[in-house]
Amino acid sequence: MARAGASFGRPTIELADILRRHGEAYLRDHAGHVGRTERRVMSAIMACRTAALGGHVEGCDDCGARRIAYNSCRNRHCPKCQGAARAKWLADRQAELLSVPYFHVVFTLPPPIAAIAFHNKAAVYAMLFKSAVEAMTALAANPRRLGAKIGGLAILHSWGQALTHHPHVHCVVPGGGLSLDGSRWVRGRGTFFLAVKPLSRLFRRLFLERLRATFDAKGLGFFGDLACLADPTAFAAHLAAAHRVDWIVYAKKPFGGPAQVLAYLGRYTHRVAIANSRILACDDDHVTFSWRDYRDGGAVKTMDLKPDEFIRRFLLHALPDGFHRIRHFGYLANGHRTEKLALCRSLLMKKVEPTKHGKKEPPTSAPEEGTNLAPPPCPECGGLMRVVADLPRGDPWLRSKTSPFWCDTS
After folding, report:
1. What is the phi-psi region of residue 271: left when phi exceeds 0, alpha when psi lies from -120 to 50, beta otherwise?
2. What are the boundaries of each domain within the chain?
3. 272: alpha, beta or left, given left = phi > 0 and alpha = psi -120 to 50?
4. Which residue numbers in the chain have pLDDT < 70?
5. Helix, strand or coil for residue 106?
6. Which CATH number fits domain 83-273+316-348: 3.30.70, 3.90.1150, 3.90.550, 3.40.1310?
7. Handedness of CA 116, 122, 128, 131 (dihedral sign)
8. 315 CB contacts (<8 Å, ≥6 apart)?
9. Of 304, 115, 139, 357, nearest to 228 (Cα)?
């Protein structure tokens, strides 16, 4: 059930609270259908910043107040653990930005193919990356298009605003590239990167070719309602139907400059399926969270789900172990990024663009949960807090203490 309207204050319910309250029942009711990866994700989020993971005691130099700071789980699906990874990643990317327009291109799998992806995440998500990159690279290299070797990065998201399975890749690409012989920089046409319709058709063809080859190599599994697709004739018919529909490729307007590129990346690179700030309430019967209805002009609404269904939807987006959801390609690929960036800059004859105040515009990014890495000041007097003791995992020390100790579980 969805409701429109309402303004939202800061939530007091976190994803970890929902899993602690309803996770055991979910695992019991879905025994045999929850994989090892999903169980580890649940366990990590529930233990995050609790005594289970240990931590340390901080003491104030001035007033002597004490508090507990627990360790983070660092799981990439945890809403509270992306801040540090995001900050380091953005710092590394800042030095790689070029003084050219950047474009945002999104490649989305249609629902019939997304259903196959859910049961074959590692294989099909990899196809999604490769097909999107190859489509852009091939089209850009065409002399009738851009006639250049491009580079960029791609970020996998598997969710929609309502936590449904909606696999798509966000690509951030400089508007131009190296000439095919590497002797000059080829500039794009202002606000235009590549034509969307031929890009969409090429993406569809490349992806379906890969999917067919993987099926022929017996590299796909089909379960439940999709079990019938194990039959070659049914699978061929499924692919033929997917080839007849338009695949959505969306190219947004270029970013205004490097600061906007970093701000965008900060919002997208380390995002998880749902942020704690979107969770509004939880009881025995429902979980309520906010979402944007883009079919209604992006209106913010609320949705109520049964706890069992909320947890099921969240776990839809658990990635296979070791799967990389952020990938560089082209001249920004990891193997030769430093060398190629130096070549790009020399060809661009990069100059710093001054702002209207005559200073270089600093990169900015939107704040995110857990990005404040510095310890907060003393809650009693504002003094400096220092670490005075370490707490091992599962230490019962806190449970035997009372005031003036203060437990920070935020």
Report:
1. beta
2. 35-75+374-408, 83-273+316-348
3. beta
4. 1-11, 350-375, 394-410
5. strand
6. 3.40.1310
7. negative
8. 34, 38, 41, 42
9. 115
* Amino acid type, 245: V
The two structure tokens encoding residue 294: 């883009």
Q: Which residues face 103 on adjacent strands? A: 173
Quote the pLDDT of residue 375. 62
C-alpha radius of gyration, the chain, whole number: 24
| Pair of tokens at residue 109 | 């799998």
Q: Which tokens sit at 141?
A: 């290299």
Quote the DSSP letter at residue 378.
Answer: P
**For 95, what's the count of Cα atoms within 13 Å in the CB-facing half-sphere?**
7
Distance of alpha carbon 44 from alpha carbon 40, whole angstroms: 6
76-131 per-position pLDDT tens digit:
999 988 777 778 788 888 888 888 889 999 999 999 999 999 999 999 999 999 99
Question: Which residues fall within 8 angstroms of residue 394, CB to CB, at 6 or more apart?
Answer: 51, 52, 54
Please give the model's pTM, rounded to 2 decimal places.
Answer: 0.82
pLDDT digits (tens, 9 = 90+) for 167-183: 999 999 998 999 999 99
